[in-house]
Amino acid sequence: MGIYGVYIVSKSGGLIFNYDYTVPKIETEQTFSYPLDLKLSYENNRLLVSFGQRDNIKVGHVLLAINGIPVSGRKLEDNKDALEMLDDAANYPLNLKFGRPKMTVNEKIFLASMFYPLFAIASQLSPEPRSSGIETLEADTFKLQCFQTLTGIKFIVIADPTHTGLEQLLKKIYEIYADFALKNPFYSLEMPIRCEMFDTNLQALLEQADKNGINGI
Amino acid sequence: MSRQSTRLDVKKVNSELFTLTYGAIVSQLMKDYENVEDVNKQLDRMGYNIGVRMVEDFLARTNAGRCYDLRETADKIQYAFKMYLGITPALTNWSAAGDEFSLTFDTNPLTEFVELPDNYQNLKYSNILCGALRGSCEMVQMDISCWFVQDQLKGDLATELRIKFNKRLEDAIPAGED
Asked: Superkingdom of the source (chain B) (predicted)?
């Protein structure tokens, strides 16, 4: 059991709220000698492992730090180029930290607005008339549950595939939204939700759902 | 169908406090605008803004589905009045086409301690209700008009709120429905 995150998409398809509840942090730090037995490639402003999976370093992980100095893009914090540093035998042994890439806010907004047409297409593709859009989307590592209100707002929760009772959880999140976002006079509709009360109540709900199962709420 | 018991406890408030707060708003608006028509308009606008938010609260708590007939809508509106104002208006005067009806109130909690001064006879004191109904129906893709035809404040026996269904807002219906 585990809830990974909650997303709220507005009527017009913009991401108005996202919250990462539990994202397992996977990071491994190892000392390497020359030559490096991993193939790195530079994609989307990140240094990714493209081949040469071993131990806990998997293809798709990004280089987070060299000798404890964080890497951002392809540059180290002290403005040295990371790739040049890795190519130079004189620098070895090097201590490299790899980990799973974190989604940036922009990527989340991008994905949320991508889900919007998918949802609409699903209802069009349906062989039966008057079908709803995507309600559940399952993969081997997660399950996505979506609930669209009559007013067109989508509440999305991402959880472990074995998690049950996500529909009820989404209804509860809707109640919290109605109570703490909409009744906040300083919240304007369709805008990103930045209400502290909403955050704390949502967090309490997720904690409870995680601990006691959804029936305990 | 009562308001579900949730973690969020059901906060009840004395209707007198509500009545007086509303009275304070109206009298402040009268001071600010001096023109009765402007006050009516402003109350309607305030109601609209309340309605577009309040409808989410109603939907979240009642699990109400979409309405495909004005009679269903009327029942839900009646239920909403019970939920938010503690009164159950009667549904009367259905038009033959079924696209218009009236909500008739024996008592209106908004006007509990109110008497209209003679020079304010054009003031639609409870006009906020019209705005709220219009706003909340618009959020569920129904365009309605709403106005008072009788008002106890103006010497009528009952307060009557007329609701007319104009059209469904087809463009606004979210994908995955219809």
From this structure: Eukaryota
